[in-house]
Every structure is written in C-alpha cells, then in structure tokens.
Amino acid sequence: MRRHGTKLHGIVAEFDSPEAIIAAANAARAAGYKRMDSYTPFPVHGLSEAMGFRSFVVPFTFFFGAVLGGLAGLALEWYVSVADYPINVGGKPLFSLGSFVPPAYECVILFSALIGTIGMFAFNGLPKPYHPIFGAPGFERASQDRFFLCLEADDEMVEEDATSKFLQGLRPLSISVVEDEE
Amino acid sequence: MMADKEGLGGHDPLIGGQQTFQSLDNTIASVVQDQKRHSNKPWMATTFIAFIFVNILMVSVGWLVYQGIGIWGNNVPAGWAFDIINFVWWIGIGHAGTLISAILLLLRQQWRNSINRFSEAMTIFAVMCAAMFPLFHTGRPWVAFYWLLPYPNIMGVWPQFRSPLIWDVFAVSTYFTVSLVFWLVGLVPDFGTLRDRAEKVAMKRFWAILAMGWRGSQKHWHRYEQAYLILAGISTPLVLSVHSIVSLDFAVSIVPGWNTAVFPPYFVAGAVFAGFAMVLLLAIPIRAIYGLKDLITMRHIDWCAKIMLTTGLIVFFGYMLEVYYGWYSGEIPETRVMLWRFFGPYKYLYWLLILCNGVIPQLMWSPKARRHIPTVWFVCLVVSLGMWLERFVIIPMSLTINYLPASDRMYYPTLWDFGMFTGTIGFFVFMMFLFVRFLPTINMFEMKDLLHTLSHGKARKVAVGAKGGR
Amino acid sequence: MSEVHAAQAPEANVAKLGPAGLLIGVPLLGVSIGLMYLAPDQRVEMAQSYLFGWVFWAALTLGCFGLTLLHHTVRGSWGLSILRMLEAGGGPRALSLMALLFLPVVGMYGVLYPWADKARVAADTILQHKSGWINPQMVTGRTFVLFAIWALAAAWLRRSSARQDESGDETEAQKRTNFAAPGIVFFVITVTLAVTDWVMSLDAHWYSTMFGPLFVVGPALGALALCTLIVCVNADKSPFNQIMSLSLTKDLGNMLFTLNLFWAYFNFSQFIIYWNGNLPTPAGYYFHRSADGWNFIGGFLIVFQFLVPFFALMTPRIKASPRALAWVCGWLILMRFLDVYYIVTPMYRTTGPMVHWQDIVALLGVGGIWLAAFGSQVKGASVYPVHDMRLMEAVEHA
To answer: Which segments cross the bilayer (chain C) (predicted)?
Structure first.
C-alpha cells in the first residue's frame, strides 16, 4: 500500500542493453501503453520510434533564432550606420551591404545557437533538480550502464499489479514502483 | 568488442582492449574522481612550469596597462606585430577543436568521439588567449568598448560596421560564446554520470548542480541530439567565417601583400593545420600519462596527421599563389614585398617558414612516419612554429615595406612581447591541465554509444563511414 | 539489392548521349570555326564566343578529372556510383578532344589576347614584364603539355579501375590512391596555371589569387551536377536502380551543397576584398561587371546559383527524391553556363547586347562534340565499378 501523501508515478523496469529496452518499449506500445519514458546512459537510436515519440520543436527554435539574428544584425547595422551615425568612410555607401554581411552572419549564428540551446533545455523542462524517477532503486546506473523503462501512471492503462505483471513478462533485471509526492 | 575485425587495410581499432560501458566510465571518470591519480610527476611538473608562465603573463599585462603599449616593439609603420600574430595564431589553434567536434560529427566520423571534448576545451582556452592580445592592444580595454560593442553611450558614437575590425569583434565573441555553449551542452549528460558515480555528498551536490537535473530521459535525448547536431551544423560555417574574417582584417586593406583574394580560405586552412598540430602536441603526452591509449588510438593520430598534411599542402599552395601572382601582377609594391621576403633582412624567418610548413610536414606522406609517435610529435612542434612564422611573414614583414620607400622601417620585438606571448602559452597549458584534472576529458556518453555501435555487427558500416567522408 | 526488380527494369543508355551530341555538335562547330577563319567581319565576335564555349567545356572536363582524383584519394562510397561518368567526362578522350579544340584558339590569339598583340605589349610595361612567361609559344606549349599529362594520368587511372573490375584485385585501389593523392596537388597547381593563361590573361593587368581555386571548385560543382543528373534521371533503370538508395542521393546532395557553398564563399571572399580595397587594377574586374547589365547577371547568380540551390539542397525531402535532385542538378548546370559567361565574356565585351547568337552556337558546338566523347567513353565500360567491394558496402550502408 502507498504511504500517505504520495501517488503513483509509474512502474519502472530495468534492462541491461539498448536492444532489450527497444524490444520492451515496442512490446509496451503493442500492449496499448501510451505514456512512457525511458532513461538511458546514451541516446539509443530507434528508441524514440519504439516509444512513439516525435518532436521537431528544437529545429524550429534554431531556425527562428537564425532568422531573428539575421534581421536584428542588419537592423542594427542600418540604424547605426545610416540612421543614427552616418559618416563617410573611404567613400563607401552608408549602407554597404557587402560589408554588412559578415556581422549579420555572425548574429545569425549567435542568436540561433543561444536561442536554440536555451530552447532545447526549456522544452526538456531543465534545469529541474527533483524528479520522482530519481527515487527508483538503482537509478544512478541509468547514467552509466542500465536502461530503464517507465510506464507512467497518467496513462489510464497503468495499474500497479497488472502493469508489473506485464513488465515481468519482458524479463527485466528488476521492477520497481516509483512514487511521487502528492 | 573491437571495430574493424576484418581489418580493412590493417587499421587500428577505434576503441582498443575489451571494454564494457562500465569499464569506459571507469577509465574516463576516474581521471576526475580519483584525484590521487594526478599526484604524478608529469602533471605536477607541467602545471608548475605553466603556472610560472601564468605569472609572467600577469606581470607583462600589468606593466603594459601601467606603462602603455609603448613597451611593445610595434611602432609605425609596423603598427601590428606580435599582438596580432599571436591573436591569429591562437584563434587558428582554436579552430581545430571546433572542426573536430562539429564537422566530424556532421560527417559521422566516429573517430572524433574520443578527442572532441579535449579539443573543444582547447578551443575555449585558445580563444581566451587570442582575445587578450587585441584587447590589451587597445591600451585601455576598459574604455575601448564604445567602439568595440554597439551600445548606446554618452558620447553618441557607434562602432564602424564597414571596418573589418568590428567584424572581428563580432566573429570572435560569437565564436567564443558558441564554442562554450557547444562544450557545455556536451558536458551536461556527463555531469549526470559523475553525479551518479560520486561517493561524497558534497561532490554529488556539485555535479548535480552542473547536471541541471539531467536524468537521461529518451525524450530529452531526442531533443538533445537534434540540438547537438544543429549546433555542430552551425559551428562549421562559423569556423570558416571566423578565420575568414580574421584574414579580412588584413585583406580588405591595401597594404601590398595583404590585398590578396585567396586570404580567407588560405587562412582557414592554416588555422586547421596549426590546430591539428596542437591537438596532437597535447593529446600524445596526455594519452601516455593517463593511460588513454585504448581510447585515443593510433588511428586517431593517423587521421590527424593526414588532415595536417592536407591542410599543410593548401597552405603551401597559398604561398605559391602569393609568389606567382605577386610576380604576375607586375606591380612594383607587390614585387617589392616578395623580394623583401626572399632576400630582405627577415629572409631567415621566411625560409624557416618554408622549411617548417612546406618541407618537413611532407614526412606525413609516409604511413610509417604517421605511426611513429616521436616523428608525429616533432612534426607537430615544427608546424606550430611554422604557423607562427607565417603570421610574422604576413604581418610585420608586409608592414615594414610599403608603397613609399620613405616609410620603410624595421620592426624588432621587445622582451615584453615575448613575455606576453610565452605567458599565454603558459596560461593555455595551465588551463588544459586543470581541465584534464577536473572535468571528464573524453565524452563518456558518446563513447558508450560508439562502443554499442561497434559491438553490434556494425563494425563494417563504421569502417565504410569513416572512409566515406572527406 | 533488389535483384528481382533489377531484372525487370529497362536498361539505362547513357551512351546514347554520344550520337545526339554529334548531331548538334558537328554542324555548329563547323559554323563556329568557319566564321572565325573565313568571315573576317565575324572573326572577333566569333573567336570570343568560341573561347567562352571552349573554356566552359574544358573546365567541366577538368572538373570531372579533379573529382576522379578526389574520389580515388578519399575513396568515399558516394563517388562509386558516378565514378564511371566522371572517368568519361574527365577521361583521356575528353581531355585529348579539348586539347584538339584548343587549336582554333591558337590561331586566334591575335584577336583575343592582349599579350599576343605586339603593339600593345610594346606600349605596356606590365605586359612586357610578363612576356617571358605569357607569350604565344609558352601558352600553347603549356596548354598541350598539361593536357597530355592530364590525359595520360586519366588513362592510367581508368585502366587500373577497369583491371580491378575484371580481376577484383583490391591492391589496384590502393595503387590508385597512392597515385591520386599527389595527383590532386599537381592538378590544383596546373589548373591554376592553365586558367591564368586561358582566361585571366584576357585582361592585360587584372590578377587574383582566388582565380585558380574558383576554377577548381566551380567546374567540380558542374561536373558533379552533370553526373548526379545522369544517375538521378536513370534512377529506375538498370543498373542504377540497384545502387539507388536514400543514402546515395543524400550523399550526392550534400556534396553538391558543399561545393556550392565553397563556390559562394570563394566568390564572396574575392568580391569583398577587392571591393573594399578599391585599388584600380583588382577592383577593375568588378567595375566592369557591376554596370551595363552585367550587374543583373551577377545578382542573378547570387540568388539562383547560390541561394536557391543552397536552400533546395538543405531540404531533406529534395535530397531523398532522385527526381527533385535531378531538377536541382539541371538548374545548377544552367547556372554554371551563366557563371562562366560572367567570368569570361566581360573580359573583352564591355557594352552592347550581352548574349550574342555566336555564344550559343559555340557553346553548343563544343558541347555537342564533348558529349560525343563522353558517350563513347561511357560505352566502353560497365556503368559503375561492379567489382569494387565497397559498392556492396555502400548499398548495405543504405
């Protein structure tokens, strides 16, 4: 029985190889589980597909940053060199597009990298010091050599006994029930 | 768990020995977590000597700020000399770091995985060293920002965007920022591993803060990989642009010997050339001291040597172009510069440059020489010297001879010039050795990924991939 | 590999380009040379147009040859599918043909090149300064010697590759690598010297250290576009359908992307350096080319040779579809015509209508004959290197 003030976060199974966790994720999806996550020491190729997870928000964030950077760079150069402080240098036109390309280009890269990276962490919900999954026994090896599959409780199919039994069928190294603060 | 079992052309494996995920973590993380490993003599001795030079740097900078840049040897017509030579030299060294991690990631060259972290760190410290020179060349850097950075100031003036010097400010600051971001993004999952491996609570907390709660969720990895790949994608043109812009500092002016169209790609090649030399110069002793020979293998050294040879040839081609078109142009100032280089008072430096960058690197054609560590190390040392000489040949040697013979004047460096230069070398080595001691030198999660790929019957695929790129 | 599919697919006939080329090439080349030598009032115009046509195809030949060398040096799997086409385009036949077609230019030095005009040389100190190296005998000699060396090297590489097809001997590949790696060094240096003679010296004074690199990268882009076009158009025909895969079109697309990027980078570098330096001689190149309608061609090239293919080749969907990639390649080849036109023609034509009918005649005339050489050389060998082990790996890699 659950301690007072806690609720179920999910049922976690521990595996020892990338192949095993991909197979497990596929099996869980085939069994009808929809809300799941896995925790692995390195990005396992094919696991996102097995979990049915797709996301393209990060590339768009980078692209948005790039466009914003380019426009901001050119706007700055125009404002500085044409509108606010026009001076004749070497007889060159005030708006020297050729000369304005290099700084604008650097702005494209700077904005894209910063906005994209910050965006990536933000969409991942990081930094986040506490997460219930850290309570799973042996979870410190998720960053080393173990692969954890968590079927999350907000999936209505997840039900402590049945789900544990299902996971047992996938031959994990261990199974644990992870709880969250209410 | 060895790559290349069928031994395509007798290549060395990318990961040597019998490794598991656990043994990789142990090899890499223990360098950080078992601090006793650093009480060895080589680490102590190198760090101590480097620290002495850090002090020389601080004294040189202190005296410079107190006294003014008159303590340096540069004076009209050679307004640029050691400061800009060293700036270009350091920036160039930094570029190999980004290239190794970014371009090779894009080309899916998995041999990069064991040296990318190391070379990214090299980039960051090299750019720090580089930035010091132009910053202190302004004399009083704390009042120079109004023409370096575009911010509304009380004088109502703005930077001059038609000047390559401002392009340079944008390029170098962007380069530093993006390199730092790329490096930190790569470190976050490894901080997570260190957090989970740490035994003392204080250390656990320390790594936990740096790891930002990284928990290895596949959803996070998914976005993380997208971001990492795109960062690599935008870092690659960034490297090209940064050194191109550095070269434009010279090329868009009309100094004879500088107004040369091939400067941008030729500078970029030179940067990669010097950078790979520096990577090997540092990686060879460190892999010996820390027993990383299974991770930084002969194959890595062989590849780096080949890239050095290629870029070295491009650089040498650049010298030929300068000479040929210097003559072809038939313009007196251009021809004078060429003759000044060949036969002028600095001629020894020019011919030494040809020896260092043109002749000695040709040793790397021989596969045997590429696998003989002392030879490779020697060539790298020669190349580092050669690339420094190249900038000497380009900068003060072009400035000391100009359109009007009346304005020709010799340039001699002072002791303070050498003080600051050797000081930055000390600073660089000092920072690198601190990095080796306190942060994971090799990317742990990528090595585990590589190990997994190699050990699952995809060895052939990797071998093809490694050869398939350029 | 889908062998069932392979058996049913119709066979690609790349060699049929040959007769078609001959059909267009022979009459138009006849007209060009005839006008040059028999019609004095057409001579200058025709000679200039002929030089443009010749330079385009000679550069494309060298682009094919350069990529062959590059392929043998790095031995990337992307190159195997187009290797036979590269070998045909930059093969001994095409190279000897271009040497032969240089002969009409030799007869027209006087109308084309300032250094061949004795009166001009006598009045110009810079031309005198160069006259020991840039003069009719030296330029002719260099051109033919270089073509001979290139053709011999191409023949050797091709034979070695054919030997390997027959015997499956892997050591041949290593031999080619050992030959091609220093070969690239030689190639880049000699191409630089050659285009300086052929094109840069059309202007008495102008010089640029970027010119050689531009003529290495631009034609390589054209050559790769042509070969990719042929592979993609025949994607569902045998034998290309056996090697066609997502990773192949992606690799070829990425390579095109890279070369296009380098083309833009080199051009922008040259432009920004000379425009900012603003010295009369170097900047004079852009002075011509930014007026009298040439500026439209320049702007058009920035947008349509660089930006449009840049974004097209960045799109994964285009790189995944042979059809779409073929369109991009066709477009790139058209832009290559325009780019070479923008480099060569303003050297001697500063005003007047820009594209003359003679330009088209010469371009198609030389091109037709070039295609004939290309087609005949393709016919002689299997369309891709069958016995190369790495092709199998390349397919597996997909």
So the answer is: 20-39, 51-74, 95-116, 136-157, 178-199, 211-233, 254-274, 294-313, 325-344, 356-374
Residues 20-39 of B with CB under 8 A from A: 20-22, 25
Nearest to B441 by CA among B232, B300, B216, B286: B286
Name the band, by pLDDT with cuts 50, 70 and 90, for residue C384: low
ipTM for the complex shown? 0.89
- The Cα–Cα gap between B2 and B462 comes to 12
In DSSP terms, which residues pair with A11 in a beta bridge? Answer: A151, A177
Q: What is the 3-state secondary structure (H, E, C) of C53-116?
A: HHHHHHHHHHHHHHHHHHHHHHCCHHHHHHHHHHHHHCCHHHHHHHHHHHHHHHHCHHHHCHHH
Q: Give tens-digit pLDDT for B154-187.
A: 888 888 888 888 999 999 999 999 999 988 898 8
Look up the domain containing C9 and give its range.
2-396
- Whether residue C276 and residue A99 make contact (CB cut-off 8 A), yes or no, is yes
Instruction: Tell me the CA distances in angstroms from B219 to A118, A128, A137, B195, one per residue in order.
Output: 16, 15, 21, 20
Q: How many domains does chain C have?
A: 1
Asked if B457 is an interface residue toward chain A (Cβ–Cβ < 8 A), one would say: no
Joined together, the tokens standing for residue C62 give: 């060298």
In a domain? residue B3: no
Residue B266, domain member (yes or no)? yes
Q: Name the 3-class secondary structure at A152.
A: strand
Residue of A nearest to C268 (CA): A98
C271 contacts on A by Cβ (under 8 Å): 98
CB B383 within 8 Å of CB B277? yes
* Interface mutation vs chain B, best among A35, A124, A148, A149, most B CBs within 10 Å: A124
CB contact under 8 A, C207 and B328: yes
Residue B134: closest CA among B92, B78, B83, B76: B83
Among the partner residues A90, A100, A110, nearest to B174 by beta-carbon distance = A110
Judged on CB neighbours under 10 Å (0-12, 13-18, 19+), B76 is exposed
**B11 domain-assigned:** no
pLDDT tens string B210-234: 888 888 888 888 889 889 888 888 8
Number of domains chain B contains: 1
Residues of chain B positioned with their CB less than 8 A from the CB of C281: 329, 331
Name the residue of chain A whose CA is nearest to C267's CA.
Answer: A98
- Burial string for C200-229 (b: 16+ CB within 10 Å, else e) reads bbbbbbbbbbbbbbbbbbbbbbbbbbbbbb
Q: Do A144 and B214 touch (CB under 8 A)?
A: no
Q: What is the CATH number of the domain that holds B439?
A: 1.20.1630.10
Mean pLDDT calculated for residue range C80-102 = 88
pLDDT digits (tens, 9 = 90+) for B103-148: 777 777 666 777 788 888 889 999 999 999 998 998 888 888 877 8
| Alpha helix stretches (DSSP H) within A5-135 | 18-30, 47-51, 57-78, 97-123
Residue B318, domain extent: 21-450
Chain A segment 139-158 residues within 8 A of B by beta carbon are 140-145
How many whole angstroms separate alpha carbon C43 and alpha carbon C35? 6
Q: What is the pLDDT of residue C336?
A: 92
Describe the crossing of helices A97-123 and B164-197 by its angle, rounded to 10 degrees: 20
Give the DSSP letter of residue B12: P
In this prediction, residue B389 carries a pLDDT of 93
Residues ≥6 apart with Cβ < 8 Å to C379: C15, C18
pTM: 0.89
Place of tokens 């799941």: A36
User: Cβ(B249)–Cβ(B73) under 8 Å?
Assistant: no
- DSSP β-bridge partners for residue C201: none
Instruction: Give the tokens for residue B320.
Output: 């030929």
From chain C, the residues in CB contact with B331 under 8 A are 126, 281
**What is the rounded distance in angstroms from the CA atom of residue B443 to the CA atom of residue B449?**
10
For the record, the structure tokens of B159 come out as 């930077």
